[in-house]
Amino acid sequence: MINLTKAIFLDRDGVINESIVRDGKPYAPLSLAELKITTGAKEALKQLKQAGYLLIVVTNQPDVGRGKVAQAIIESINQALQQQLPLDAIEVCYHDDTANCLCRKPKPGMMLQAAKKYQIDLTQSYLIGDRAKDVEAGQAAGCKTVWLESGYREPGPKAPPSFKASSLDQAVQWILAKQE
Questions:
Q1: What secondary structure letter does DSSP report for 102?
Q2: pLDDT (tens digit per residue) in 97-116
Q3: Could you give phi then psi for residue 126, rounded to 5 degrees?
Q4: Measuring CA to CA, which residue among 169, 167, 149, 168 is closest to residue 157?
Q5: Is 164 helix (H, G, I), strand (E, B) or coil?
Q6: CB 7 within 8 A of CB 136
């Protein structure tokens, strides 16, 4: 029998790094200069690693597909995040909604691919995200979900998340308390 592992799937922008908010809507940083890691993210992620979780970022980056930013810039941002944070992998969907791909959240494709690649038990895993499509992707994959309420001017998840948090640290403390 294969011994499956547990994971924390993390959205990128607005969860481990700050989103750039304009008119109540979040946007990804489009350069390394705009990248700012969320306060407390490094310490919170270290706690999850110590609890035995794989840490996998799952991020939609449609500005590449829309021609607004080069894929190399997104990859350099992801590389900077991997150098500064204890992440195991970063899965990226570069498609726009019009591509109708299986990897773009709210579809669970990135998590399902990672589960197969890293032998992850999705029922013992969590997704932490700041937008409805993150939570909906986590739910579709069979994970427990944490919604970081960010105050964006957009609708929340269609179905309630497992937990609502106001910060990554609060989300992590809730997950760790579930392990006891």
A1: S
A2: 889 999 999 999 999 999 99
A3: -130, 150
A4: 149
A5: strand
A6: no
Q: 139-169, pLDDT tens digit by residue?
A: 999 999 999 998 899 999 999 999 999 999 9
**What 3-state DSSP class applies to 146?**
strand
Q: How many helices (H) and strands (E) does the chain have?
A: 6, 8
Evaluated on CA atoms 38, 43, 47, 50, the torsion sign reads positive
The letter for the amino acid at 130 is: D
Catalytic residues: 11, 13
- Three-class SS of residue 72? helix
Q: Which residues contact 86 (CB under 8 A, 6 or more apart)?
A: 42, 45, 46, 49, 55
Task: Tell me what pLDDT residue 3 has.
Answer: 72
Which phi and psi (to 5°) does residue 137 adopt? -65, -45
Nearest to 74 by CA among 146, 17, 116: 17
Indicate the SS3 state at residue 131: coil
Residue with tokens 């109540």: 24
Answer whether residue 2 shows pLDDT above 80.
no
**Dihedrals phi, psi of 148, to nearest 5 degrees:** -80, 110
Buried b (16+ CB within 10 A) or exposed e, 19-40: beeeeeebebbbeeeebeebee
DSSP letters for 26-58: EE--SSGGG--BPTTHHHHHHHHHHTT-EEEEE
| Average pLDDT value over all residues in the chain | 95
